[in-house]
Amino acid sequence: xxxxxxxxxxxxxxxxxFALAGAxxxxxxxxxxxxxxxxxxxxxxxxxxxQVELWTYYNGTQQQAFEDLVKDFxxxxxxxxxxxxxxxxxxxxxxxxxxxxxxxQGLVGSASMPDAFLSYSDTASVIDELGMVADLxxxxxDEEKAGFVDSFLAEGDLNGNGGLKVFPxxxxxxxxxxxxTDFQTFADATGTSLDELGTIEGVTKVAQRYYxxxxxxxxxxxxxxxxxxxxxxxxxxxxxxxxxxxxEILNIExxxxxxxxxxxxxxxLWDNYYVPMVQGWFSAEGKFRSDAVKTGDLIxxxxxxxxxxxxxxxxxVDDETSYPIELGALPDPSFEGGxxxxxxxxxxxxxxxxxxKKETACAEFLKWFTAKEQNTDFSVSAGYVPVTKDALTxxxxxxxxxxxxxxxxxxxxxxxxxxDTIEAGVYANPPFKGGVEARAVLERSLSDKAVADRxxxxxxxxxxxxxxEAVAPYLEDAVFDAWLADLTTQLKxxxx
Length: 496
Description:
Blueprint lengths: L2 H12 L35 E7 L3 H16 L1 H5 L1 E7 L3 H13 L10 E4 L1 H9 L12 H5 L3 H5 L12 E2 L5 E6 H11 L9 H17 L12 E3 L2 H11 L5 E4 L2 E4 L3 H9 L2 H5 L10 H6 L5 E5 L9 E3 L5 E3 L2 E5 L10 E2 L4 E4 L4 H14 L2 H11 L11 H10 L5 H16 L1 E2 L7 H28 L4 H5 L5 H19 L1
Parallel strand pairs: 1-2, 1-3, 6-9, 13-15
Antiparallel strand pairs: 3-14, 4-14, 5-9, 5-12, 7-8, 10-11
Helix pairs in contact: 1-8, 1-17, 2-15, 10-18, 15-16, 16-17, 18-20
């Protein structure tokens, strides 16, 4: 990596400032729920331990980090209080949600409900409607709750009444993750600056420039420019992008969603994803965009900050050609003139409604797990950020990442961008009827059409049509209007 690239990488790591030591009151926060004056632990008896079973979706490094802390708890705090925690991974977010839902409904062949499980708010709301979710607000004092980042805790208030039914344990957002090695070559040749990637419109302009620059390197081959950018989560783009522009797609009140489509807002979302996609400036190759970075077919993408541990260290062109690359990271880009807003991600623990002893045992484990030292260690190892104000600082996390054996170097590089994104503003939409189905529609609608139409354009070019002629029909307003009408119909069906 050249000196210029290294300098830019160091700027990315050290240039970000972050001050979350005070109260973080981000958009959409609810008031603190009422709490007991003292933590409720008197029902526990070390001579008669209670066993609690936890289900997670953690895998690999995350699962190992969690299991190590469970062992530590059982040998220390758990032993003193009379709590034995067991945990198992259900294989993934979707698999866990299905397993919990099946168990809650008592379906044939399903396992018994665990005492606590990781969940996002949509799934938790479904289980809550069955009357099977414990409200943890009474197990934590006001002082204890005040130590958590406000928006993280507020996300667990499923019913808007001050309750606490999804307990935060580790959070993430999205960042722009960059192959700085290849970006620097492009930047040196074209005068492109990292500053241009601070807005969504800027990313689109740079992507066009990169496509044209790579296309010009083979003047005898028409239309073989390479894509620059991609996105892992399209629903996040549509939900937070529309919120940045002041017209949220999903208007949620009291668990009910109504659609709010402003044509100008939707057209801007279209112009900064579909339009560059069909022209080859963006791509959606591979299951995750990091797959295309690994093969050299993409320079950067917006993805979960927790996924940065999987950012490739090398580009493999073919069986004989590979070279090392270095990671750079920037905060999640926002629309020009819009209100910065990025997704607030990371499931929390839901405690199954049972008896006071079981619920108390789960609450005591969660208190221990989210204490500064434990939660910092877990977050750094798993790629998340902690959920309490005193732990969510650049100083604390950098010190921990440097001291934890095996901590990802990528985590450190990405950390300033992650914290700057959170500080600028993050959002998690409240649960609503049909939320899971609506998100699935948002995830595939724009992306699937863009991929299919780009394939058609590429095939036309390969058959001899000029790139300009091949793409022209897809840039007509009528194509956008047809897509918007179809999206509206699909979303209405999802939330009906």
